[in-house]
């Protein structure tokens, strides 16, 4: 009998194969985080001995942690995979950033609009993402194969019924499908799988002394000198790690002593807060993830 | 808000493989979302920031005053919060000391039945929720029916809001009895009924003092003891091929999921559809080659032979998996646009998408009464039994044995929407479902090659009249001329094709009907068919004549008087009939109807068999059958 992780793995591989067999131009949305790392590992298993038959796409906001970018380039090189990096040229021209424009506009313009641009430019008809249903209430409502209109819109009231393991992948011109092979995984499953499979992840997930400032109860790591400090604000070295990774000014660190994967797993088991509590962008407004998804955010 | 913690430190319940997938369903406002929120809360799964958010949301959207509104934990969509209803399936995860759970919280609104079916398709058990004040509603019947139809046999009825009827034992027992009687009609004999209050937490996780008269399990205890299975069929292994894996010219593997039992290196497999066979040479994974792959594994298989295997093929050990292109199925319609018999849809079976047509429904199933109703079409949320046809054969197993190979979805060709969900009952092989196949090599082509036209030469007459003797001579002459012939003799056919038939009138009619059909097929094959049968009834001879075209039927009446035939009695049958050892013997106790207008009448009292045979050939020439001879 398969173990629970074996079953999750087999389900995800199934989804990868089905999606690739039924699409013309698939792509994997690679956001460099732990879920992306697991996703990529599963993709390699699904198609072995062939390499994953699709490129990686990173929609870059230019505000990611530097360690993330280094890890991204190293991963693509190590695995010999094609990596497409898309930076929204309008945002580059206008210098969109979370400090002057706010987290909501920053995220919409860089990530949501950036993803739409990249999908259209490369005519991708199917994109894999690492979203999990346990992350957020509107994600719990998402199908494994999620249909998007030619305007990249998700209509939560009109999702395709998804029965058994039979996925409807038929689309018209300009339409696309987002596929979430990790739908039924939890945060703890992801960590236990990383442990079991020895999957490399960005070192930011492990506790280390890092320069942070506390803002609105969130610990922000000062990753470069672009971050404007308020008067009297001095970055302090604290032993912290990250549970999720995004744009560094929008991602809160947590105090932690967990320096290895087993220590992180042990910490997970006694955690009293959820993974996304450090995500500034989820808290903009109640239901904000749903609105972002409707606009085309993955 | 305090956070109860049912997980003792140091235990790792997530290491358990044991998983139960279940769904909750019920009518609007029955309290499903509240129940799930309560389960999550009581099983210690909510984090402090989620509880903070819940408290804030409860003040803004809640219906419970200062108390947390657990429904807001699962109704995460803005439209759901506005309307206070559940629109779409939400999947939630929780873990107790005993097992893991995935719960599909499905909507109660009738217009969202498709989402409820979605949740049920992957579930092992169902929690049917109802409001104790309202009792059984039409949605209770509908959901129970759908759940049963999808193969779920473990059902718990959660009688909710018992706090609002003063925890009345009488109300609970009346509702339970009514529900059990209904479930029994669906063949579900094991139903647990639990009195609960999701709002107050009564009998949700632990049994409550509020219902001292209730001696059964709490809902969570029931869920922890329900039977979980991995959805895989029992029996020999088979692999549904999803993707043909060809990294380079040296490797050709078939990637897919092992369903059923264990697939082993060296196993002999049959490729369905089709009859090709090969042997599993290697089972490949990124973690190394496997000697065997247990059910549920995702692997890549290399076969010993180069066979035609493509996406949608099934590599099957043993004989369980077959292929067919016509089925009787249960069909649930999911779309606002009604299902139209005869319309061309698409359907996805396993990993193959094919053209699909449904016939007019045999009957629609009334979800409340189980009654079979007449139906021309099918509207959203309705269920019917229907014969369906697809453009090419697919590998299948009946749904009751195998959810993976027994299910299909129907897709609209224009809108691309998923419009139907089907479950295969069995494959159809009845002739009514077989269309006449158009073929290129037709009768005309055969006639040109043969140099003669096809024809049925139908010899009729009493037993012992000389039919078979003359027919044999005719065939020898025709054969000598190079014609393509075949002789169907009554006695010989009764040894094989018609060995199940006796000599009653009904059986004699059937005897002739079958022979007429065979003769007509042989005419299609371009042959001159000699049929030597007593064939006593004019109606059946007319039937045989009607199966071929004008000019292709030559009735030869071998006219021998009864006394002559009886005197010859070559098989001794007349003697036995006269002694009463044979009944229904033509001419003795069963009538013979002589043809009124045969193509040829032979008087065997005046001519020899050889002369008679010549007369038959002359008649065939006259009909143009032997034009070039």
Automatic annotation (TrEMBL), chain A:
Residues 276-298 have a biased composition (Basic and acidic residues). It comes from the Bacteria. The keyword Transit peptide does not apply. One of its GO terms (molecular function) is ATP binding. InterPro entries: PAPS_reduct_dom, Rossmann-like_a/b/a_fold, SO4_adenylTrfase_ssu, Sulfate_adenylyltrnsfr_sub2. Pathway: Sulfur metabolism; hydrogen sulfide biosynthesis; sulfite from sulfate: step 1/3. It catalyses: sulfate + ATP + H(+) = adenosine 5'-phosphosulfate + diphosphate. Residues 26-252 form the Phosphoadenosine phosphosulphate reductase domain. Residues 271-298 are annotated as: Disordered. Belongs to the PAPS reductase family. CysD subfamily. With CysN forms the ATP sulfurylase (ATPS) that catalyzes the adenylation of sulfate producing adenosine 5'-phosphosulfate (APS) and diphosphate, the first enzymatic step in sulfur assimilation pathway. APS synthesis involves the formation of a high-energy phosphoric-sulfuric acid anhydride bond driven by GTP hydrolysis by CysN coupled to ATP hydrolysis by CysD. This is Sulfate adenylyltransferase subunit 2.
UniProtKB/TrEMBL annotation, chain B:
Catalyzes the synthesis of activated sulfate. Gene3D superfamilies: P-loop containing nucleotide triphosphate hydrolases, Translation factors. It holds the Pfam family GTP-eEF1A_C. Its EC number is 2.7.1.25. Residues 17-234 form the Tr-type G domain. It catalyses: sulfate + ATP + H(+) = adenosine 5'-phosphosulfate + diphosphate; adenosine 5'-phosphosulfate + ATP = 3'-phosphoadenylyl sulfate + ADP + H(+). This is Adenylyl-sulfate kinase. One of its GO terms (molecular function) is GTPase activity. CDD domains: APSK, CysN_ATPS, CysN_NodQ_II, CysN_NoDQ_III. It comes from the Bacteria. Residues 587-611 are annotated as: Disordered. GO terms for biological process: hydrogen sulfide biosynthetic process; sulfate assimilation. In the C-terminal section; belongs to the APS kinase family. Keywords: ATP-binding, GTP-binding, Kinase, Multifunctional enzyme, Nucleotide-binding, Nucleotidyltransferase, Phosphoprotein, Transferase. Pathway: Sulfur metabolism; hydrogen sulfide biosynthesis; sulfite from sulfate: step 2/3.
